[in-house]
Amino acid sequence: MTRFRAPWMCLRALLSRRAKAAVADETGGIGLLGLGLSVCVCMLLVGGVSVASAQMARLDVLDAADHASAAAADRISLAGAYTEGVDNATLDADAASAEAARIVASTPLPKHITSWRVSGVEVVGEQVTVRVRAVVRPPVVGSAMAALGEPMTVDVVSRADAHLER
After folding, report:
1. How does pLDDT run across 88-117, given as a tens digit for each residue?
2. What SS3 class is residue 129?
3. Distance, CA of 72 to CA of 48 (rounded, Å)
4. Based on CB atoms within 10 Å of each CB, which residue in 16, 66, 79, 158 is the most buried?
5. In angstroms, rounded to a whole number, what is the distance separating the alpha carbons of residues 123 and 85?
6. Cut 0.90: pTM above it
């Protein structure tokens, strides 16, 4: 009986060493998996915060553009009103552009918006189209984007009708 026991014990010892070596090779694997998942979750959170901040900034820029286009739609051509009468009043493109720029410049900058400006004003008939461009700095990745030299810009377009009553 001792003869057959020795090979069995050798085989058992050999398998035990291989099992221990396999387990030793995988030691810390769960920690690495946990670290990888934590990094993925953090990236998702940072991305979500950045996207939400950009969306809120876009809404703030859209509010300023709406206010500017509504104010610009009130600028009739005074020269035309005096020469042709109020019944034939038209919008003055230069006055509308100046008013839109004044409104945007006088509006206080919301949080996370570093600058904004009127990038274009177009007057067609009784409709005014105002384009506003803003530079946004998201709260978490803003400094990293600034270091890369690529600012996040938001462009919005707002239209307003003059509703000139005759």
Report:
1. 667 788 888 898 999 999 999 988 888 999
2. strand
3. 36
4. 158
5. 20
6. no
